[in-house]
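Review this today:
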Amino acid sequence: MNDMFRFDGPLFKIGTLIGDLLILSLLFIVCSIPIITIGASVTALYYVTTRMISGREGYVSRDFMRSFKQNFIKSTVVFVLIAICAFILLCNFTLFNYVYRANQFMLVFQVVLSAELAGISVYIFPLIARFDMKIGQYFKNAFFFANRHISTTVTCLVFLAGAAMLFMRLPILIIIITGAYSYFSSKLLMRVFRKYLPDMDRDIDDYHIRDEAPSDENKVE
């Protein structure tokens, strides 16, 4: 019983994790206020939580800001591109609804595009957080992972939708939901990444992903 209250016991570890996730959530909120910086904030969030999963956690605030600064340009460009695509799809659904009534194929096509964009969004910022490649390659790899590992993609999207619903019902929960979702999804995403890159738990400074999409030849059974 006393082991539970030791400095390295389970209660201390759980309390430390909750505290770190609270700090991460607050950092994310503050750094996302300008809106245009949301992409960099998401990337920094995943940088910290994936390092936690890898057993390489350090100082939460320092690691967050380090990733935020280093990946700001790439993350912002990716965020803007995704936002533009999402805006176009939203306009198609809302402003041109009469076209869909006349052409069911267009409706299905838009739904598929929306699903693909959502799937890509699940993977692309964690990829930026941990790997160094060109922007086009981020999209290519994110598309590959989203379609190759559909169960993981759907699970992450379902929990993201659940987190969004909780936030809308009780906005104050954002101070923990953001970090908690990132930590949970990082567990799933890291399991996927390790199938292709078994040594990816090494630091980004020590290892860079090859500038090509993963293939089944890389897969570790």
Observations:
- The radius of gyration is 19 Å.
